# Entry
Amino acid sequence: MSEAPFQVQIEPAGTCTMRVVIQPSEERVQQEMRAIAREISEHRTIPGFRKGKAPYSAILRLFGEEFLRQEAAERLSVQLLADVVKEHNLRMFGPAHLREKELNPMRFVYTVYQPPSVRLGDYRSLRVEFPSAEVSEEDLARALEDLRQKAAVLEPVEGRGSQPGDVLVISVEGRDSEGRLFLQDQSAEVVLNPEDDYPAPGFYRALEGMSPGETRTFRLPMPSEQGGGEAEFRVQLEALYRRILPNIDDDLARTVGNYNSLEELKAALRQRIREQKEEMAHEKYSLQVIDRLVEQAEVEYPPVMLEDHLESLLHEFEENIKARYRLSLQDYLKATGQTLDALRERLQPTADRQIRRSLVLEALAKAEGLDVSEEEIEQTIQSLGESWGDQAEAVRRMYQDSKQRERLGDRILYNKVVSRLVAIARGEPVLEPQGEVRDATL
# Structure
């Protein structure tokens, strides 16, 4: 009686992770080794034998047992894992990882990740109070002052140098400690604000007292997040203006818009501020409600998801550093005294939070029976095209790309799911889901 073709041991090895040990019988290994030997005999020239006629002993002597076992292991590792997955109904998330391999006796140890799971709990009872969006007198005063600043009249300055509050027209070059150009602008219009730290702390203080036509060259220490060291700036003052601010009265109202009086302007501003506050409050409320749902949900996901998402965040971080400071990630870390491991550790809570939010919203969509139809995607593309006017055809062509279309569908679904969750949290009447789904494996 032949022995079983293989033995298997499956045990938990962490969150959504299984350790799978497969040990093929020696009989099964020998069968595979002989099959490989036959193939070699049929396709290779073996001295003293016609093709396909060389016996197993000749192949074994010529190629060696270790070679045949290695080849058998390559095949059996794939075949037996597929058999185990099917026989034990293992649900896999991504490919299995071969952690150990032994040839004699043959043994394979795999790490198998399982799909994430989410238990939403009684999310239909979730309630969060919606914040009010009141417009205060301080809000109105700030808005009026902003309009007053924008309506200022510029008057050329004569007989004195630049001072705080003036408007300067400058040409500027900035070079880092190694002489590389990182800032260049011509005829830039700026307000002389000594507290402004861009492009470096002290930059605007160095411009005080300048007269039109004057050029100044000076060095300033750069913040560590911008590479550190000293930068050299060369600034030419092309023109100098002082701002004449108007009074906050009916004339200002007529200047900034189609208003007959200051009271009409104030009423319009109150409405605009209220709408802006409501929009900001709704966005903040949506995130608060999502976080509350995540807090009450039970979420498990395989560690490989965190590793992959961390890599994505690191790539985003690196691209931002290049765009903002024109530094490589390695140079930025060196300048700020950080290590890559420390940065990964700092980003890990963000990655975990984003994964949990995404999984919970995906589970909620499943629980509520929400999805996105092709018709909805087409309607959205049509609306986007109309809003772009002459660029409508370019927008439609862009969404012919399958990845862009998929991203659009994901965005539509996200908005639908968040809208449903907000309605639930505010206690508004919503349609009952088709089935009672509280647990989801994604």
About this structure: The chain has a mean pLDDT of 91. The radius of gyration is 34 Å. The first strand starts at residue 6 and ends at 12. The first helix runs from residue 26 to 43.
